[in-house]
Design a protein that fits this description.
about 5% strand, two-stranded antiparallel sheet, mainly alpha
Length: about 475
């Protein structure tokens, strides 16, 4: 092996050492069985001979791409469908809207997609081959038949040639002409004038931008769990605590997490597996056309409108009918009542969410708003994040402070419990303090969960129709 070959070999070894060190760092302080297993796998697999041999073995069976078709449907085979190969941000059409073109070159990471476990093997090899030596990537040197680079792969010349021949296929297109798939999203776009002529349509197949999703996931994860943002969040809630200089608080409310790949996220792609299959969707909400919530002004409680909301009245009647039948104190009747009550709790949360989204934050400043303080805090949470209004400065500051103290969920839950008690009591049903305390406790739990995890609560808030169904006999 020449001196230059040895230098390339040493460079590859150093890259692997750094990669192994970075992966092990993520497991520091973790002693559970899963972490111990991952640590052993890293020590066994992240070594140069293994990465080169495994990468060469699967290079022809995976596709390196920025936009992967399998994220649309896991059963789309890479050799039947076009995946968009690595493309620079500058190669995309530049729009003012945020998209893949908005990423800087370092953030436009390629992905490995193919058949499950093979993705990881290929991706490790691809990362290694993308390292630059003498201003060229190792992969580029292999494609140019650089003898020193090839010899650096293995001490045996024949084995080195075999590895090089297979590795250079790692980023090559696995399908030679553009092709869509019946499992993909497709749009037939008329480009001519005759809508009855099939030849005058272009078939558009939107592809999933993994680099954009990956960059977005990193930003949101940092906003949720990063040390700087956690400190800024703490300063925001603890008014007596001086925020650190330059500690801007970032938040992404109303997130939805779309899971790809089920329990086998690696079947989609390597980057999808690194995100644990999580692909965040930002809230896409309609504009606030109505400036003031007129239907909630000049009333003493929002619960005046709750019974007319969605299927609330239907569930209340079901509960009344159930209790009037004087059910036995056994598990089956108890479970039925529990389902009805849980449906009411979730509808209560959904009711609150719709009011929060429908009206502009700060609407409870209106002089005609007669709602109790706890209801204002519940239904107008956005006001707590607004700068104090000159005409309501002291009240706004108190509002923000009270919202952060989180005493209001108890009061709102009490209102709900008394509202339900009033209906059942008027119907002549035997309810009392025990029921009020139980309803209050459950309602408070749902409200607090909705405040902390709005996306989860919204998902659950659409379950009531199913929750209240009778079980099949």
């Amino acid at each position: 092996m020449s001196a230059r070959s040895q230098a390339i070999r040493d460079f590859l070894e150093k890259c692997i050492q750094n990669r192994r060190k970075d992966l092990l760092k993520k497991l520091e302080g973790k002693t559970d069985a899963g972490s111990r297993k991952k640590r052993r796998e890293i020590l066994d697999k992240i070594v140069l001979p293994v990465i080169l041999s495994e990468g060469a073995e699967v290079a022809s069976q995976i596709q390196i791409a920025t936009h992967v078709a399998k994220a649309t449907h896991p059963n789309i085979h890479i050799k039947n469908t076009t995946n968009l190969l690595y493309t620079s941000p500058n190669d995309f059409t530049q729009h003012k809207e945020v998209g893949t073109h908005s990423l800087s070159a370092p953030n436009l990471v390629a992905d490995a997609t193919g058949d499950g476990a093979k993705n990881k093997k290929a991706y490790e090899a691809y990362l290694l081959l993308q390292r630059k030596f003498e201003e060229k990537t190792i992969l580029q040197m292999l494609k140019e038949k650089d003898r020193d680079a090839i010899n650096a792969l293995d001490n045996d010349k024949n084995r080195a040639d075999e590895l090089a021949d297979k590795l250079i296929e790692i980023d090559s297109p696995k399908i030679t002409s553009p092709a869509s798939h019946s499992l993909m999203k497709q749009v037939y776009w008329l480009v001519g004038r005759d809508a009855t002529n099939n030849e005058e349509y272009h078939l558009l197949s939107p592809l999933f931008s993994n680099p954009l999703v990956h960059a977005m996931h990193a930003e949101i994860t940092d906003a949720r769990f990063g040390e700087a943002n956690v400190a800024a969040r703490r300063s925001r809630w603890n008014k007596n605590e001086k925020p650190q200089e330059g500690a801007a608080y970032r938040d992404y409310p109303n997130l939805i997490a779309r899971k790809l790949g089920g329990k086998k996220q690696l079947n989609i792609s390597q980057l999808n597996s690194e995100r644990s299959g999580i692909n965040y969707l930002l809230a896409s909400l309609p504009p606030h056309w109505q400036e003031q919530p007129k239907s909630f002004l000049n009333i003493s409680s929002a619960l005046d409108h709750f019974r007319n909301y969605n299927n609330v009245d239907q569930h209340v009647k079901k509960l009344c009918q159930f209790l009037m039948a004087n059910p036995k104190s056994t598990m089956k009747p108890y479970a039925k009542r529990e389902r009805i009550e849980q449906a009411l709790y979730q509808l209560f949360v959904e009711f609150g969410f719709e009011i929060q989204e429908q009206y502009t934050p700060g609407w409870t400043r209106n002089a005609d708003c007669k709602l109790q303080r706890c209801e204002r805090l519940w239904l107008d949470p956005g006001r707590a994040y607004l700068p104090p209004h000159p005409d309501h400065k002291e009240d706004d500051q108190a509002f923000t402070r009270e919202f952060g103290q989180k005493v209001w969920p108890d009061s709102v839950a009490t209102l709900f419990a008394k509202w339900l008690y009033s209906i059942l009591y008027k119907a002549g049903l035997p309810v009392g303090d025990n029921e009020i305390q139980r309803w209050k406790k459950q309602a408070r739990h749902v409200i607090v969960c909705a405040t902390d995890w709005p996306a989860t609560a919204r998902y659950r808030a659409h379950i009531p129709g199913k929750v209240s169904e009778e079980p099949h006999s």
